[in-house]
């Protein structure tokens, strides 16, 4: 029974930490990434030899 309680506390703590980090980082990751295209993250201006 104690193991179940510890497991629940650890899971809830992990979710809380993940939520806090997600809240703090909201928009920062996306701001530093190029806009996605249908073929991935490459833009139409990219040439074959740049890959």
Structure description:
Residues 32-51 are annotated as: Disordered. By secondary structure, the protein is mostly helical. The chain is built from 2 helices and no strands. The longest helix is centred in the N-terminal third of the chain and has 23 residues, at 2-24. The protein is elongated and about 60 Å long. The termini are far apart.
Relevant terms:
about 0% strand; elongated; 2 helices; mainly alpha; about 50 residues
Summarize the structure.
Helix content is 53%, strand content 0%.
Per DSSP E runs of 2 or more residues, the count of β-strands stands at 0
Structural class: mainly alpha
Number of helices, counting only DSSP H or I runs of 4 residues or more: 2
Order of helices and strands: HH
Rounded mean pLDDT score:
75
Instruction: State Rg.
Output: 20 Å
Distance between the termini: 55 Å
State the low-pLDDT regions, or none: none
Q: Approximately what portion of the residues adopt beta-strand conformation?
A: under 5%
Shape: elongated
Largest sheet: none
Proportion in helices: 40-55%
């Amino acid at each position: 029974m104690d193991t179940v309680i510890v497991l629940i506390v650890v899971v809830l703590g992990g979710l809380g930490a993940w939520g806090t980090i997600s809240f703090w980082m909201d928009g920062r990751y996306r701001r530093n990434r190029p806009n996605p295209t249908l073929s991935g993250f490459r833009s139409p201006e990219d040439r074959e030899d740049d890959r």
